[in-house]
Amino acid sequence: MTPKKIAAFALGPIGGAALGLITLPIVAWFFSPDDIGRLSMLHVTLSFSILLFSLGLDQAYVREFHEVTDKPVLLKSVFLPGFVLLTIGIVILALMPWSMSVLLFGIDSKLLTGLLIVAILLQFSSRFLSLILRMQEKGFAYSMSQILPKLFFLSVLGCYFLFSVEAIFENLMIANLLSLSAVFLIYTWNTRKDWLAALTARIDKNKLKRMISFGLPLIGSGIAFWGLTAMDKFFIRGFSSFKELGIYSVAISFAALALVFQSVFSTVWAPIVYKWASEGLDPHKVKNITDYSTLAVISIWSLAGMFSWLVTYILPPKYDQVQYILLASMAHPLLYTLSEATGVGIGVKRKTAYAMLAALVALLLNAIGNWYLVPKHGAAGAAVASAFAFLAFFIVRTEVSARLWQSFERVRMYILVLCMVILSSAINFIEIKPISMFILYFMTLLSSIVLFNSQFKVLLSSILSLFKKSIKT
Fold it and tell me: How distant, in Å, are the alpha carbons of 6, 38, 282, 318, 463 from that of 244?
């Protein structure tokens, strides 16, 4: 993948994050923390639906794309089984006597239940359509499919303010559903040739069995990972309040700046590494990517810690705690991203069951941490429990990969990562001044530059070279 294509893929996450920074304060000022907490439960439900009903076949599509010639057959094979099961599951849930909206949002509303069902179907379909653009390396179309819906959501909020629409959760839900609809329509148009060809394709049952054998272990690991990322929200919902859940959700949204790095890396990394694997993978390439990824992760985390106090100037006073919670919340996207590089041996060797092991270990630690910390510390306790859980997730994936495939030097990486997790957790429980936070994270940044000095010099040289070229042109 060329730098130009990588930049095209990066445009979506970067643009989406920028729009998120604009949208989030607006939502925080207009809607209550309780409603933002309910919105978090919606996102948790959508992610669970994809993880469960995709049957791991979305990842099988990525794994097999470069090794099959009939792409329409592949698309139909990975989409149809999960969609049929999802439809059956929705019908069964709709016939149940209890209300899904009460369980998730604490509000008895047939409208919310109906909107939830439509949102699940749209999100599921969009997931598979997005994979087409991703694997065909259509970076610009992929990015626009991420940016335009966020612009649409922002426009809907603008209309709410302009026409004085009541700031209630139902209206926030409608705005999100309209955004999901826009995503689906854009993906549908951009991939029309592919899914139209897939409609008449005949599924290769033998190929499907092989992909299911690859994907089935990922169902368990996917559910375990969903529990790892969603458990904190359910603990806050059960042992604290929607208000604390709202504060936590806002902190996670700011931590989503790190998701830009995760999204770009994960989008680009999987196709590249499996293409390398089909051609004969050089372990030194992976080690090189790991070193640069470590430097990037620690740098992003350190810069966030140095300037997290700026959050207090764009949010209402009731969200002051966000500046500390978001730093522990960054463990999820950053350590997951790093584990994608360090744990590549699991995918290369097709030992996907070990991915489930990493998620289960982290899930258990997260449950223990949330059970102990959330009743006492609310959102802060959930963030800290999640940070240490993802530390365990990262270590297990890294160590398993090193033993299954190729071992590599890991001491520097572990030292820096452990320091970041401890520091970002401690500031949630002890009183610390912004200047002290700045110094501590600045020292961590300097340490990473010293430990990865050669990688830093290469990056700095590349940046200076690009800057000189831009000046000349």
Answer: 38, 11, 47, 10, 41
